[in-house]
Amino acid sequence: REKVNVIGIVFDNYTKKEFIQFFLERINKKEKTFVVTANPEIVMFAKNNPFYYKIIKKANYVVPDGVGVIKGAQLLGSPLAERVPGFELMLALLQEANLNQLRVYFLGAKQEVVEKAVAQVRKDYPLIQIAGYHDGYFDLKDKKMINEVQGTQPDIVFVALGFPKQEKWISQYLETAEKGILMGVGGSFDVLSG
Ligand code: UDP
User: In which family does this protein belong, per the annotation (predicted)?
Assistant: First the structure.
């Protein structure tokens, strides 16, 4: 399906199921993949920030998150297949990671939040290999975190630093990464940890 441009951000026009299929194919081929789940806040922020806009342009997949994006596409006469909330996409990926015993790294949120989120994942998705986890309060410019995560050879890295931090970090990570699905998930660890 053709991509849809909503005020400068070019969305991939797929259903949640289709996105997951593409991600799994890329994991199998060991291709690195940058996923942005763009809600209206991200679209507006990118519009006003050329540096962030350039980063979003590097994404392999831009997922339509938020009703505002769906409504916008409709008004522009090029409707999107469906809304794909970032949290739901993360849950669907966790399910697949469990089925395929993938290696998953969890980066971001406060120490106790990420710990609780990982404990919940261990309980709900016992076959996932936890590659590692770390809180989100570190110096973004410090390359140590990038090396640490890459050293664990993750198939998927969920990055919960909020935007625009998470996308900035992911774009740096991918400069030297060999593989992995990298996805910014905002406040999702807070939800996951209950
Ligand atoms: N966060 C972080 N490091 C930071 C700033 C924020 O790990 O330097 C975490 C914060 O603890 C929270 C998430 O990022 O878990 C931000 O969630 P928020 O809902 O603000 O992000 P959004 O969904 O709006 O991108």
Answer: Belongs to the glycosyltransferase 26 family. TagA/TarA subfamily.
Residue 133 beta carbon below 6 angstroms from any ligand 1 atom: no
* Contact 180 CB / ligand 1 (< 6 Å): no
Q: Mutation test of ligand 1: which of 42, 149, 161, 185 has the most ligand atoms closer than 8 Å to its C-beta?
A: 161
- Is the pTM higher than 0.95? The answer reads yes
Domain ranges of the chain: 4-192
CATH code 3.30.450.40 for 4-192: no
ipTM for the predicted complex comes to: 0.94
Ligand 1 binding pocket includes 102 (Cβ within 6 Å): no
C-alpha dist (Å) from residue 57 to 10, 74, 109, 131, 153: 8, 22, 25, 28, 25
Peptide bond into 64 cis (omega under 30): no
